Amino acid sequence: xxxxxxxxxxxxxxxxxxxxxxxxxxxxxxxxxxxxxxxxxxxxxxxxxxxxxxxxxxxxxxxxxxxxxxxxxxxxxxxxxxxxxxxxxxxxxxxxxxxxxxxxxxxxxxxxxxxxxxxxxxxxxxxxxxxxxxxxxxxxxxxxxxxxxxxxxxxxxxxxxxxxxxxxxxxxxxxxxxxxxxxxxxxxxxxxxxxxxxxxxxxxxxxxxxxxxxxxxxxxxxxxxxxxxxxxxxxxxxxxxxxxxxxxxxxxxxxxxxxxxxxxxxxxxxxxxxxxxxxxxxxxxxxxxxxxxxxxxxxxxxxxxxxxxxxxxxxxxxxxxxxxxx
Length: 326
Hints:
Layout: H1 12-19, E1 29-31, H2 35-39, E2 43-44, E3 51-52, E4 54-57, E5 75-77, H3 84-95, H4 98-107, H5 114-129, H6 132-153, H7 158-169, H8 175-186, H9 188-195, H10 198-216, E6 219-225, E7 232-233, E8 238-243, E9 246-249, E10 258-264, E11 267-272, E12 276-280, H11 282-295, E13 299-302, H12 309-322
Parallel strand pairs: 6-12
Antiparallel strand pairs: 1-5, 2-3, 4-13, 6-11, 7-13, 8-9, 8-10, 10-11
């Protein structure tokens, strides 16, 4: 499970062709944080207004935003811009049982039953892949892979490129500019699929399948906060690794010691060597919350009237420094 799993593969264009009839079947407002997961952080904000979460905009930590329903936060318009309806249906297979699974987790009854255990593992995989971090890595890796392929075609692959040009046009391609043009034509289908969002669509589904398989081989811990409470960011499934006394985050899943995901103000799930229930002290809860803030792309969420506003205000200046606005 390394970063190259986001790179285009041989079967991508065939899969894109299979999805062509669904290209315009689009869900515009796509949740990158499951609504059912956000509901676990919701509570009555004011009398008569229903169950809300409290959002915080890390670009403007001094502003106190209005509380919102889970439906209205944790989403991005056209996060996947090609044939997303069928992808949303795939996510729904994981999310449909979450309310009952969360109840079982809080009762300490989720690890003995294979179904809720697997749903929680899938939830980690889902939020690891359906994330802004994944999409950013995808764009970066595509740009790197494209340059590598182009360079190869113009060097070691040049005889193949010249032969293909003759077979297609009957003419020998003259000069560097002509070869560059032919190389662009060879890579054109992939570039077009990248630009219209189709390549991200098939990569994210393939990566989800592989991540599910990887996560299914691991143990699962359900951890309860002894004191304090968890918040959740807009990029919530975090890979973590200890390097000495430093707790690093957002590395490839295969390089991580664990992956963690808050599932409510009092509970978090984590990949581990074996299944276990546990309780974690307030200092570690705070550390996990700081990681959620640092890994967020713009927003973090708490329950209304949470005492975590002070922690968010404390960490936000560092977040702003690490995420300069264009």
